[in-house]
């Protein structure tokens, strides 16, 4: 099959929904009615985390591969930006122009993601989680020990986004719109990929790899390519992340952060690309405002409990919760309508029994 | 054994040669060129013993992990938290009662009980859904780590082994011969040697339990075919709870043993979780002998890495894992579970 047919041949989507327009208007107008703190620390940060979690959702939801190395890929891209571009630490900082830096950082990180895929592709399910976790930790230790390239324990600081078209991109307003644009682009890409021939075969491989293999599909190549694509998304978000923080250190790719991304994706929901963004918003809000609810020190307990409750009671995350609530509502409305009809027909008994289940 | 030699003659020769060289390195007084090559003999022997002890400790932690996985397909990512929890409990009990062994016993029982509770209250509800179980264990480990930090704070605890395990033993290994003709023997902490002995003892006990008892037979049958076991009239849930209890208890046991050998601090849970992950990936998931081999390899690799290439010593273990995965994805001794 030709590559064009394989990749650019997407079936049309389910069409336009009015609720999307409301969300879009809200997201675009959001900085207009919120403070700089809310635009930058909450809005932009949620979008970045959501985009990284989206790359995990793409792998997990369509490929059935839960990779804990997505944050590692993002972190590597961030490191590469600091190494190839400018930083204030005085280690590396090759001073490449920003567009070249960003391009090379994203490409190398995506290749690294493909490499992670190549290592873990022969495993399935839980084994993938364990192996990608081990890879993530290996990179964490590596950047912490390596002082010549990654500047070891301290990492890099003073990583600045470029100033182009007279706009300093780290100002809250332009940075928010930059993150929003990247997030929307990634979301669209994931939607597109899921409907392309490649995405459909990936989903078929998720459901039954043996059958796909016997049908002549190269299962490993599909999976590795999925890792590569999700690596591009994660790496792009990683570049935004390092611009957001202005610094990067081994802690940015540590175990806690790696697991946070999984928590975000699972809490939001792995079935639909919007889920990770939902999870990210909840996560960032909790991170910033759990201090008002309980002791700040106990933030992890709150996050852990949220994950526990979601996994116990709603396997498909907040999105699943929302969908079930909506189904129940519409079911209740249906029964009420039916019951109304029934009462009109003279059966008052059935009305009571139906409306109070 | 004989079968192995016949089938893998080449590897047998390599193994025998390696063992002979190792024995010679241990017993002989090193000539100059070996010292030039490998550094001082004292460093080498100490590293070797450290590696063996650490391997023993890793085996104690990983055997429970692999046992639980083998039967229930449950990757218990809260296993590291159980290690740390056991260490803290053991510390508190040993401090209060003054008896180290009481601490060890209570830690084993307490963590075993928490494991049984987890199995009965949580994992039973989502049987067969591996991914959800794994996510739940992540959630539990996050909460447990945070609560333990709240209770025992971030300070490092250290507790002393019983008197007679304290101090150093003189090993019958000569490190150098002084110019006066007097031989210098190598000394090593008794407690660490005891850790290795305990690990071997636990390994043998586990082997006997799994291969020579009725319950062990049930467990092995469950590893091979869970549904068939329950169909033949055995209360699988009981077996599950028991295995979870033993696996978790071993983690708590290892917590006290390891906490005494090294120290107890927040973050140790992640360290031992990762160690057991790598050990079982290298050794083969679900296989107790695999855990033993993997633990030895990883323990030795970590210590030799630290001694001979200090900067990237930590990365070495991960490199071993990647190589094993590339050559043998099911692990060195893995294979039983893949046949299902």
Describe this structure in a few short sentences.
The complex is a heterodimer of chains A (357) and B (340). Chain A has a two-stranded antiparallel ribbon with strand order 1-2.
Please provide a written account of the structure.
The complex is a heterodimer of chains A (357) and B (340). The C terminus of chain A is likely disordered. Chain A is mainly alpha-helical and 357 residues long. The longest helix of chain A is centred in the N-terminal third of the chain and has 28 residues. Chain A is globular. In chain A, strand 1 and strand 2 form a beta hairpin. Chain A has a single domain, classed as ABC transporter involved in vitamin B12 uptake, BtuC, CATH 1.10.3470. Helix content of chain A is 73%, strand content 1%. Chain B has 340 residues and is mainly alpha-helical. Chain B has one domain: ABC transporter involved in vitamin B12 uptake, BtuC. Chain B contains 14 helices and two strands; from the N terminus they run αααααααββααααααα. Chain B has a two-stranded antiparallel ribbon with strand order 1-2. In chain B, helix 4 runs antiparallel to helix 13 and helix 13 packs antiparallel against helix 14. The radius of gyration of chain B is 21 Å and the shape is globular. Chain B starts with a helix and ends in a 13-residue tail after the last helix. At the A-B interface, helix 6, helix 11 and helix 13 of A face helix 7, helix 12 and helix 14 of B.
Give the termini separation of chain B: 26 Å
**Cα end-to-end separation of chain A:** 55 Å
Helix content of chain A: over 70%
Note the main sheet of chain A.
2 strands, antiparallel
Looking at the structure, the CATH topology of chain B is ABC transporter involved in vitamin B12 uptake, BtuC
Main sheet makeup of chain B: 2 strands, antiparallel
Largest interface: A-B, 38 and 39 residues
Low-confidence stretches of chain B: 336-340
Strand content of chain B: 5-15%
């Amino acid at each position: 099959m030709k590559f064009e047919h394989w990749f650019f041949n997407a079936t049309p989507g389910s069409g336009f929904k009015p609720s999307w327009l409301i969300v879009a208007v809200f997201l675009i107008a959001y900085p207009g009615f919120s403070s700089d703190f809310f635009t930058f620390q909450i809005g932009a940060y949620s979008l970045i985390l959501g985009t990284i979690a989206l790359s995990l959702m793409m792998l997990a939801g369509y490929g059935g591969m839960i990779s804990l190395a997505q944050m590692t890929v993002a972190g590597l891209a961030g490191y590469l930006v600091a190494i190839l571009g400018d930083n204030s630490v005085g280690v590396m900082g090759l001073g490449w122009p920003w567009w070249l830096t960003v391009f090379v950082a994203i490409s190398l990180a995506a290749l690294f993601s493909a490499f992670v895929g190549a290592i873990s592709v022969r495993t399935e399910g839980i084994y993938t989680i364990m192996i990608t976790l081990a890879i993530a930790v290996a990179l964490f230790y590596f950047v912490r020990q390596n002082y010549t390239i990654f500047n070891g324990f301290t990492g890099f600081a003073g990583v600045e986004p470029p100033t182009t078209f007279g706009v300093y991109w780290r100002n809250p307003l332009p940075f928010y719109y930059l993150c929003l644009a990247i997030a929307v682009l990634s979301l669209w890409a994931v939607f597109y990929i899921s409907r392309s021939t490649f995405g459909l075969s990936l989903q078929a491989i998720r459901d039954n790899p043996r059958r796909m293999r016997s049908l002549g599909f190269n299962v490993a190549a599909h999976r590795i390519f999925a890792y590569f694509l999700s690596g591009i998304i994660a790496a792009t978000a990683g570049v935004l992340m390092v611009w957001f923080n202005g610094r990067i250190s081994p802690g940015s790719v540590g175990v806690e952060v790696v697991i946070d991304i999984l928590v975000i994706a699972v809490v939001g929901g792995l079935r639909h690309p919007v889920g990770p963004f939902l999870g990210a918003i909840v996560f960032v809000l909790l991170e910033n405002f759990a201090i008002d609810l309980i002791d700040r020190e106990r933030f992890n307990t709150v996050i852990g409990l949220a994950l526990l409750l979601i996994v116990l009671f709603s396997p498909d995350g907040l999105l699943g919760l929302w969908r079930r609530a909506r189904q129940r509502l519409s079911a209740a409305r249906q029964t009420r309508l039916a019951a109304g009809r029934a009462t009109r027909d003279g059966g008052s008994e059935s009305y009571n029994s139906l409306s109070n289940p | 054994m004989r079968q192995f030699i016949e089938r893998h003659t080449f590897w047998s020769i390599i193994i025998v040669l390696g063992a002979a060289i190792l024995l010679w390195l241990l017993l002989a007084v090193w000539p100059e060129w070996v010292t030039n090559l490998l550094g001082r003999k004292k460093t080498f022997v100490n590293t070797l013993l450290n590696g063996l002890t650490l391997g023993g400790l890793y085996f104690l932690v990983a055997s429970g992990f692999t046992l639980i996985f083998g039967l229930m397909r449950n990757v218990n990512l809260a296993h590291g938290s159980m290690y740390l929890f056991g260490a803290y409990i053991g510390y508190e009990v040993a401090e209060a009662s003054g008896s180290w062994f009481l601490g060890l016993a209570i830690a084993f029982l307490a963590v075993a009980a928490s494991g049984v509770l987890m199995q009965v209250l949580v994992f039973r509800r989502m049987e067969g859904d591996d991914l959800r179980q794994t996510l739940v264990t992540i959630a539990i480990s996050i909460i447990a780590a945070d609560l333990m930090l709240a209770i025992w704070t971030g300070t490092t605890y250290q507790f002393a082994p019983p008197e007679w395990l304290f101090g150093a033993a003189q090993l019958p290994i000569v490190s150098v011969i002084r110019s006066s003709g007097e031989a210098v023997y190598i000394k090593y902490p008794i407690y660490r040697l005891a850790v290795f002995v305990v690990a071997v003892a636990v390994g043998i006990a586990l082997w006997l339990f799994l291969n020579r008892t009725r319950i062990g037979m049930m467990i092995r049958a469950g590893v091979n075919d869970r549904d068939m076991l329950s169909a033949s009239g055995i209360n699988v849930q009981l077996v599950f709870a028991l295995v979870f209890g033993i696996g978790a208890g071993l983690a708590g046991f290892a917590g006290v043993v390891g906490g005494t050998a090294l120290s107890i601090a927040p973050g140790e849970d992640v360290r031992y979780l990762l160690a057991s992950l790598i050990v079982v990936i290298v050794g083969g998931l679900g296989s107790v002998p695999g855990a033993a081999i993997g633990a030895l390899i990883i323990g030795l690799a970590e210590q030799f890495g630290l001694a001979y290439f200090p900067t990237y010593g930590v990365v070495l273990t991960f490199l071993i894992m990647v190589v094993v995965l590339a050559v043998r994805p099911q692990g060195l001794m893995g294979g039983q579970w893949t046949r299902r």
